[in-house]
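Students often ask why inverse folding is considered easier than folding. One informal answer: many sequences map to the same fold, so there is more than one right answer. In these notes we will look at a single instance of the problem. The structure comes first.
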C-alpha cells in the first residue's frame, strides 16, 4: 500500500537533496526514514528558504516517489553522515505556498495551529491531501 508523506526542510536543503536524488529528515536521523517504503510519495514543505533563516517561505518545494532500497548513510563533510533514502524527484514542479491550501487539506483545515504537525519533520497524510498538493504543484 502506497503511503504519502510530508517531509520538512528549508528550501536550500531540499534543493541539495533533489540535485542528488535523495531525501533526509530530522537532521539525518534514520528512524523516520525507516517508516517510509519504496513507492511511497514524498512532498517537501519548506518553512524557510534558508536553514535557520526567519524568511517565512511556507511553501511546498519538491515532490517525488521513494526509490527501492533501504536508508543509507551519506557523507556531507566534517564527520556528518546523515541517513538518506533515494527518491525519484519530479522535474517540473512549482514552488507552492501552503496558505491557499490550508482550508483544503484535512491535515490543516480549521486549525489555528496548522504548523504544529510539521515540527516532527515527517508527517503522514492521506491520499486526498496528497492529490491537492500534487495538483497545486503541477504546472
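Output (designed amino acids):
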Amino acid at each position: 500500500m502506497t503511503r504519502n508523506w510530508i517531509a520538512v526542510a528549508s528550501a536550500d536543503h531540499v534543493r541539495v537533496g533533489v540535485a542528488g536524488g535523495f531525501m533526509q529528515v530530522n537532521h539525518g536521523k534514520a528512524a523516520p526514514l525507516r517508516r517510509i517504503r519504496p513507492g511511497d510519495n514524498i512532498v517537501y514543505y519548506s518553512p524557510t528558504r534558508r536553514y535557520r533563516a526567519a524568511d517565512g517561505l511556507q511553501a511546498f518545494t519538491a515532490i517525488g516517489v521513494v526509490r527501492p532500497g533501504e536508508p543509507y548513510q551519506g557523507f556531507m563533510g566534517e564527520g556528518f553522515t546523515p541517513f538518506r533514502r533515494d527518491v525519484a524527484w519530479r522535474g517540473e514542479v512549482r514552488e507552492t505556498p501552503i496558505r491557499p491550501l490550508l482550508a483544503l487539506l484535512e491535515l490543516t483545515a480549521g486549525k489555528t495551529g496548522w504548523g504544529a504537525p510539521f515540527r516532527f519533520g515527517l508527517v503522514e497524510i492521506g491520499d486526498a491531501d496528497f492529490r491537492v498538493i500534487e495538483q497545486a504543484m503541477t504546472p
